[in-house]
């Protein structure tokens, strides 16, 4: 398989319809380091796009200021690698806007892949998901939650529910940017 047949995988970092510690529905704040690090992971694994979805216009503007700094401002000449990674980033209001952008680009609706550190639900293994990504010629969108994870409503929208990451201990509370890097490494290795 040559590089022209890489999977069409994008990532969406979601902030709306998240849960807090008590299981209540909330909108989380934007964490700028997530934008940087997820973009760098996405560029490393040759993803199609990174969508940063937030309903608040002020936080979308902040994300665009960050992106502009590294693409057009001092950061562009200071760190060209960061500039390259941030070209993948699209700032959107919500998941629907990300789906529409992929549909416009590919003429296909992406298959949604939900993620969660919590147990439960019918899950697909990383191996099976990797095989689908590499063998099916269609776009996929990996959904990443913030806070204490995605609402049941968001999880129900997904076509696939990826198994949780597990380490050798009971502790399972990775940052979303760390979890993203591990997932991409597992999914984007050629089968």
Explain the overall architecture.
It is a single chain. By secondary structure, the protein is α/β, with parallel strands linked by helices. The chain has a single domain, classed as Alpha/beta knot. It has helices at 32-44, 57-71, 74-78, 80-86, 95-106, 126-135, 152-157, 176-187, and strands at 8-14, 18-19, 25-26, 50-53, 89-92, 111-114, 139-144, 160-161. A 6-stranded parallel beta sheet has the order 5-4-1-7-6-8, sandwiched between helices. A two-stranded antiparallel sheet has the order 2-3. Helix 6 (126-135) links the parallel strand 6 (111-114) and strand 7 (139-144). Helix 1 (32-44) packs across helix 4 and helix 1 packs parallel to helix 8 (176-187).
Give descriptors for this structure:
191 residues; globular; alpha/beta; two-stranded antiparallel sheet; 8 helices; single chain; Alpha/beta knot
Can you summarize this structure?
The protein is α/β, with parallel strands linked by helices. 42% of the residues lie in helices and 16% in strands.
